[in-house]
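Backbone-to-sequence.
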Protein backbone atom coordinates (compact mmCIF):
# COMPACT_ATOMS: atom_id res chain seq x y z
CA UNK A 1 0.00 0.00 0.00
CA UNK A 2 1.37 3.49 -0.85
CA UNK A 3 3.26 5.32 1.85
CA UNK A 4 1.52 8.64 1.22
CA UNK A 5 -1.89 8.74 2.99
CA UNK A 6 -4.92 10.10 1.18
CA UNK A 7 -6.34 11.48 4.45
CA UNK A 8 -4.58 12.65 7.62
CA UNK A 9 -5.96 14.01 10.87
CA UNK A 10 -3.24 15.87 12.77
CA UNK A 11 -4.01 16.74 16.42
CA UNK A 12 -7.54 17.76 15.42
CA UNK A 13 -9.69 19.38 18.09
CA UNK A 14 -13.32 20.43 17.78
CA UNK A 15 -15.55 22.18 20.30
CA UNK A 16 -19.24 23.06 20.39
CA UNK A 17 -20.19 26.36 21.98
CA UNK A 18 -23.34 25.65 24.02
CA UNK A 19 -25.44 27.59 26.53
CA UNK A 20 -23.86 25.48 29.28
CA UNK A 21 -20.27 26.04 28.15
CA UNK A 22 -17.72 24.62 25.71
CA UNK A 23 -18.35 20.99 24.81
CA UNK A 24 -15.00 19.36 23.91
CA UNK A 25 -16.29 16.91 21.29
CA UNK A 26 -12.98 15.95 19.64
CA UNK A 27 -9.77 16.19 21.62
CA UNK A 28 -6.58 15.98 19.59
CA UNK A 29 -7.11 12.96 17.34
CA UNK A 30 -4.44 11.95 14.80
CA UNK A 31 -4.57 9.16 12.21
CA UNK A 32 -3.82 8.41 8.56
CA UNK A 33 -5.87 6.65 5.88
CA UNK A 34 -4.07 5.12 2.91
CA UNK A 35 -5.42 4.88 -0.65
CA UNK A 36 -7.55 1.78 -1.04
CA UNK A 37 -7.70 1.15 2.72
CA UNK A 38 -10.92 0.47 4.63
CA UNK A 39 -10.94 2.01 8.11
CA UNK A 40 -13.57 1.40 10.76
CA UNK A 41 -14.33 3.89 13.53
CA UNK A 42 -16.16 2.33 16.48
CA UNK A 43 -17.36 3.41 19.89
CA UNK A 44 -20.55 4.00 21.83
CA UNK A 45 -23.01 6.80 21.05
CA UNK A 46 -21.52 10.21 21.80
CA UNK A 47 -17.87 9.21 21.36
CA UNK A 48 -17.33 11.46 18.33
CA UNK A 49 -17.55 9.04 15.38
CA UNK A 50 -20.07 10.94 13.26
CA UNK A 51 -18.63 14.33 14.22
CA UNK A 52 -15.27 13.15 12.89
CA UNK A 53 -16.87 12.12 9.59
CA UNK A 54 -18.83 15.35 9.22
CA UNK A 55 -15.67 17.35 9.93
CA UNK A 56 -14.09 15.78 6.85
CA UNK A 57 -17.11 16.75 4.76
CA UNK A 58 -17.34 20.27 6.22
CA UNK A 59 -20.93 19.61 7.30
CA UNK A 60 -20.76 21.05 10.82
CA UNK A 61 -22.27 24.54 11.18
CA UNK A 62 -19.96 27.17 12.63
CA UNK A 63 -21.11 28.33 15.14
CA UNK A 64 -21.73 26.31 17.27
CA UNK A 65 -18.95 24.01 15.99
CA UNK A 66 -15.50 25.56 16.20
CA UNK A 67 -12.15 24.02 15.29
CA UNK A 68 -9.88 24.41 18.32
CA UNK A 69 -6.68 23.14 16.70
CA UNK A 70 -4.98 20.81 14.26
CA UNK A 71 -5.75 20.02 10.65
CA UNK A 72 -7.48 17.60 8.28
CA UNK A 73 -5.38 16.93 5.19
CA UNK A 74 -6.92 15.32 2.11
CA UNK A 75 -4.82 14.55 -0.94
CA UNK A 76 -2.25 17.18 0.08
CA UNK A 77 -4.73 19.94 1.02
CA UNK A 78 -5.77 21.12 4.47
CA UNK A 79 -9.56 21.01 4.28
CA UNK A 80 -9.84 23.43 7.19
CA UNK A 81 -8.06 26.12 5.19
CA UNK A 82 -9.98 25.72 1.93
CA UNK A 83 -12.60 28.19 0.69
CA UNK A 84 -16.26 27.21 0.81
CA UNK A 85 -16.39 26.97 -3.00
CA UNK A 86 -13.43 24.58 -3.02
CA UNK A 87 -15.04 22.41 -0.34
CA UNK A 88 -18.21 22.21 -2.44
CA UNK A 89 -16.19 20.93 -5.39
CA UNK A 90 -14.44 18.33 -3.20
CA UNK A 91 -17.66 17.23 -1.47
CA UNK A 92 -19.39 14.62 -3.62
CA UNK A 93 -16.71 14.59 -6.31
CA UNK A 94 -13.65 13.53 -4.32
CA UNK A 95 -15.23 12.63 -0.97
CA UNK A 96 -18.74 11.18 -0.69
CA UNK A 97 -20.82 10.12 2.27
CA UNK A 98 -23.58 7.54 2.80
CA UNK A 99 -25.96 8.15 5.70
CA UNK A 100 -27.87 5.67 7.83
CA UNK A 101 -31.50 6.53 7.05
CA UNK A 102 -32.16 6.78 3.30
CA UNK A 103 -35.69 8.14 3.73
CA UNK A 104 -34.23 11.19 5.45
CA UNK A 105 -32.03 11.99 2.44
CA UNK A 106 -34.36 11.05 -0.43
CA UNK A 107 -37.10 13.52 -1.32
CA UNK A 108 -40.45 11.68 -1.26
CA UNK A 109 -42.06 13.88 -3.96
CA UNK A 110 -39.43 13.31 -6.68
CA UNK A 111 -38.61 10.14 -8.57
CA UNK A 112 -35.33 8.33 -7.96
CA UNK A 113 -34.25 9.23 -11.50
CA UNK A 114 -34.91 12.95 -11.00
CA UNK A 115 -32.84 12.96 -7.80
CA UNK A 116 -29.94 10.97 -9.27
CA UNK A 117 -29.82 13.13 -12.41
CA UNK A 118 -29.81 16.31 -10.32
CA UNK A 119 -26.90 14.97 -8.25
CA UNK A 120 -24.94 13.96 -11.37
CA UNK A 121 -25.42 17.36 -13.02
CA UNK A 122 -24.58 19.22 -9.80
CA UNK A 123 -21.32 17.28 -9.39
CA UNK A 124 -20.49 17.85 -13.04
CA UNK A 125 -20.67 21.64 -12.60
CA UNK A 126 -18.34 21.56 -9.59
CA UNK A 127 -16.17 18.60 -10.44
CA UNK A 128 -13.18 17.73 -12.54
CA UNK A 129 -14.49 14.90 -14.68
CA UNK A 130 -13.57 16.61 -17.93
CA UNK A 131 -16.96 15.92 -19.52
CA UNK A 132 -20.33 17.61 -19.90
CA UNK A 133 -23.44 15.44 -19.82
CA UNK A 134 -26.90 16.33 -21.09
CA UNK A 135 -29.90 15.41 -18.95
CA UNK A 136 -30.51 12.39 -21.20
CA UNK A 137 -26.91 11.23 -20.80
CA UNK A 138 -27.09 11.81 -17.03
CA UNK A 139 -30.23 9.63 -16.94
CA UNK A 140 -28.34 6.87 -18.76
CA UNK A 141 -25.39 7.27 -16.36
CA UNK A 142 -27.84 7.03 -13.46
CA UNK A 143 -29.10 3.69 -14.76
CA UNK A 144 -25.50 2.49 -15.04
CA UNK A 145 -24.93 3.45 -11.41
CA UNK A 146 -28.05 1.60 -10.26
CA UNK A 147 -26.87 -1.43 -12.19
CA UNK A 148 -23.46 -1.14 -10.50
CA UNK A 149 -25.11 -1.33 -7.06
CA UNK A 150 -27.14 -4.36 -8.24
CA UNK A 151 -30.61 -2.82 -8.34
CA UNK A 152 -32.79 -4.90 -10.71
CA UNK A 153 -34.40 -3.20 -13.72
CA UNK A 154 -32.65 0.20 -13.34
CA UNK A 155 -34.94 1.94 -15.84
CA UNK A 156 -38.02 1.06 -13.77
CA UNK A 157 -36.28 2.09 -10.53
CA UNK A 158 -35.38 5.46 -12.04
CA UNK A 159 -39.10 6.11 -12.52
CA UNK A 160 -40.02 4.97 -9.01
CA UNK A 161 -40.57 7.11 -5.90
CA UNK A 162 -38.65 6.40 -2.67
CA UNK A 163 -41.70 4.94 -0.89
CA UNK A 164 -42.03 2.33 -3.62
CA UNK A 165 -38.63 0.84 -2.77
CA UNK A 166 -37.58 -1.28 0.20
CA UNK A 167 -35.09 0.00 2.78
CA UNK A 168 -32.25 -1.97 1.23
CA UNK A 169 -33.08 -0.69 -2.26
CA UNK A 170 -33.17 2.90 -1.02
CA UNK A 171 -29.76 2.42 0.61
CA UNK A 172 -28.42 1.16 -2.72
CA UNK A 173 -29.78 4.31 -4.37
CA UNK A 174 -27.84 6.45 -1.86
CA UNK A 175 -24.70 4.44 -2.58
CA UNK A 176 -25.22 5.01 -6.32
CA UNK A 177 -25.58 8.75 -5.70
CA UNK A 178 -22.42 8.74 -3.60
CA UNK A 179 -20.53 7.11 -6.48
CA UNK A 180 -21.87 9.50 -9.13
CA UNK A 181 -19.04 11.99 -8.62
CA UNK A 182 -16.38 9.26 -8.90
CA UNK A 183 -14.94 9.91 -5.41
CA UNK A 184 -11.61 8.74 -4.00
CA UNK A 185 -12.95 8.47 -0.44
CA UNK A 186 -16.30 7.01 0.61
CA UNK A 187 -17.55 7.62 4.16
CA UNK A 188 -20.34 5.34 5.38
CA UNK A 189 -22.04 6.55 8.57
CA UNK A 190 -23.93 3.61 10.12
CA UNK A 191 -25.15 2.54 6.64
CA UNK A 192 -26.86 -0.65 7.81
CA UNK A 193 -28.47 0.45 11.10
CA UNK A 194 -32.03 0.69 9.73
CA UNK A 195 -31.85 -2.60 7.79
CA UNK A 196 -32.57 -6.20 8.74
CA UNK A 197 -29.67 -8.62 9.18
CA UNK A 198 -29.88 -10.24 5.73
CA UNK A 199 -29.95 -6.90 3.92
CA UNK A 200 -27.15 -5.57 6.14
CA UNK A 201 -24.90 -8.36 4.91
CA UNK A 202 -25.76 -7.56 1.28
CA UNK A 203 -24.98 -3.85 1.70
CA UNK A 204 -21.66 -4.58 3.42
CA UNK A 205 -20.74 -7.03 0.67
CA UNK A 206 -21.63 -4.37 -1.93
CA UNK A 207 -19.43 -1.74 -0.26
CA UNK A 208 -16.50 -4.20 -0.17
CA UNK A 209 -17.06 -5.08 -3.83
CA UNK A 210 -17.19 -1.42 -4.92
CA UNK A 211 -14.11 -0.60 -2.88
CA UNK A 212 -12.15 -3.29 -4.73
CA UNK A 213 -13.54 -2.43 -8.17
CA UNK A 214 -13.04 1.34 -7.88
CA UNK A 215 -9.96 1.36 -5.59
CA UNK A 216 -11.89 3.44 -3.06
CA UNK A 217 -10.68 4.39 0.37
CA UNK A 218 -13.49 3.73 2.85
CA UNK A 219 -14.27 5.00 6.34
CA UNK A 220 -16.96 2.93 8.06
CA UNK A 221 -18.60 4.60 11.07
CA UNK A 222 -20.35 2.05 13.27
CA UNK A 223 -20.99 0.82 16.79
CA UNK A 224 -21.08 -2.78 15.56
CA UNK A 225 -17.79 -4.68 15.79
CA UNK A 226 -19.25 -7.35 13.52
CA UNK A 227 -19.49 -4.77 10.73
CA UNK A 228 -15.83 -3.76 10.97
CA UNK A 229 -14.77 -7.41 11.05
CA UNK A 230 -16.59 -7.85 7.72
CA UNK A 231 -15.38 -4.88 5.70
CA UNK A 232 -12.42 -3.14 7.38
CA UNK A 233 -8.65 -3.57 7.32
CA UNK A 234 -8.07 -1.43 10.39
CA UNK A 235 -10.07 0.01 13.29
CA UNK A 236 -9.98 3.17 15.39
CA UNK A 237 -11.65 2.77 18.77
CA UNK A 238 -12.93 6.14 20.00
CA UNK A 239 -13.97 7.09 23.50
CA UNK A 240 -15.20 10.53 24.60
CA UNK A 241 -13.66 12.33 21.62
CA UNK A 242 -10.28 10.57 21.74
CA UNK A 243 -8.72 7.62 19.93
CA UNK A 244 -7.85 4.99 22.53
CA UNK A 245 -6.78 2.21 20.18
CA UNK A 246 -5.67 2.02 16.52
CA UNK A 247 -5.23 -1.57 15.35
CA UNK A 248 -5.50 -3.93 12.41
CA UNK A 249 -8.54 -6.20 12.41
CA UNK A 250 -6.36 -9.16 13.39
CA UNK A 251 -4.77 -7.35 16.32
CA UNK A 252 -8.04 -5.87 17.53
CA UNK A 253 -9.76 -9.22 17.88
CA UNK A 254 -6.75 -11.31 18.88
CA UNK A 255 -5.00 -8.81 21.17
CA UNK A 256 -7.44 -6.09 22.33
CA UNK A 257 -5.25 -3.97 24.59
CA UNK A 258 -7.16 -0.92 25.81
CA UNK A 259 -9.57 -1.65 28.70
CA UNK A 260 -12.37 0.06 26.76
CA UNK A 261 -11.76 -2.10 23.66
CA UNK A 262 -11.82 -5.23 25.81
CA UNK A 263 -15.06 -4.01 27.39
CA UNK A 264 -16.69 -3.56 23.98
CA UNK A 265 -15.68 -7.05 22.88
CA UNK A 266 -16.93 -8.62 26.11
CA UNK A 267 -20.34 -7.07 25.43
CA UNK A 268 -20.68 -8.77 22.02
CA UNK A 269 -22.63 -12.08 21.90
CA UNK A 270 -20.62 -15.08 20.70
CA UNK A 271 -22.70 -17.50 18.53
CA UNK A 272 -20.28 -20.29 19.45
CA UNK A 273 -20.98 -19.71 23.16
CA UNK A 274 -24.75 -19.09 23.48
CA UNK A 275 -24.63 -19.46 27.27
CA UNK A 276 -21.80 -16.98 27.72
CA UNK A 277 -22.75 -14.18 30.12
CA UNK A 278 -22.20 -10.77 28.57
CA UNK A 279 -20.39 -8.08 30.53
CA UNK A 280 -21.38 -4.42 30.42
CA UNK A 281 -19.07 -1.46 30.95
CA UNK A 282 -20.03 0.21 34.24
CA UNK A 283 -20.75 3.92 34.40
CA UNK A 284 -21.38 6.34 31.54
CA UNK A 285 -19.50 8.65 29.20
CA UNK A 286 -18.01 11.65 31.01
CA UNK A 287 -19.53 15.10 30.63
CA UNK A 288 -17.43 16.70 27.90
CA UNK A 289 -18.33 20.16 29.18
CA UNK A 290 -15.95 19.31 32.01
CA UNK A 291 -14.06 16.12 31.07
CA UNK A 292 -11.74 14.27 33.47
CA UNK A 293 -8.13 15.41 33.58
CA UNK A 294 -5.95 12.80 31.91
CA UNK A 295 -7.46 9.60 30.50
CA UNK A 296 -11.16 10.12 29.92
CA UNK A 297 -11.91 6.43 30.55
CA UNK A 298 -10.36 6.39 34.04
CA UNK A 299 -13.69 6.79 35.88
CA UNK A 300 -14.97 3.53 34.34
CA UNK A 301 -11.74 1.56 34.23
CA UNK A 302 -10.95 -1.27 36.66
CA UNK A 303 -7.23 -0.88 35.86
CA UNK A 304 -7.04 2.86 36.60
CA UNK A 305 -4.05 4.07 38.60
CA UNK A 306 -2.58 7.37 39.74
CA UNK A 307 -0.79 7.72 36.38
CA UNK A 308 -4.16 7.93 34.62
CA UNK A 309 -4.59 11.53 35.81
CA UNK A 310 -2.06 12.35 33.05
CA UNK A 311 -3.04 12.01 29.40
CA UNK A 312 -1.51 8.87 27.81
CA UNK A 313 -0.12 9.15 24.30
CA UNK A 314 -1.25 6.83 21.50
CA UNK A 315 1.87 4.65 21.43
CA UNK A 316 2.80 1.66 19.29
CA UNK A 317 2.85 -1.50 21.41
CA UNK A 318 3.20 -4.09 18.63
CA UNK A 319 3.06 -4.31 14.84
CA UNK A 320 -0.11 -2.66 13.49
CA UNK A 321 -1.34 -1.62 16.93
CA UNK A 322 -1.28 1.61 18.95
CA UNK A 323 -2.89 2.11 22.36
CA UNK A 324 -3.41 5.12 24.61
CA UNK A 325 -3.10 3.57 28.07
CA UNK A 326 -0.52 3.82 30.86
CA UNK A 327 -1.11 0.26 31.98
CA UNK A 328 -0.39 -1.59 28.73
CA UNK A 329 3.07 -3.07 28.34
CA UNK A 330 5.11 -2.77 25.13
CA UNK A 331 5.84 -6.06 23.34
Amino acid sequence: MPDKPILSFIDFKLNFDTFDGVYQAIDGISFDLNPGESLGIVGETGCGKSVTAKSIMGLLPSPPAEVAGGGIWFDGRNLLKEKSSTLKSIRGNEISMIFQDPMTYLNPVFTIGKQIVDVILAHQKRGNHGRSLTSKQAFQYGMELLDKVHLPNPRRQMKSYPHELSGGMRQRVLIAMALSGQPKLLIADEPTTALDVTIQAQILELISELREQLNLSVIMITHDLGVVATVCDRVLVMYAGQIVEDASIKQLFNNPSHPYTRGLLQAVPDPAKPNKKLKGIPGALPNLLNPPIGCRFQTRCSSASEKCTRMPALNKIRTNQKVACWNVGTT
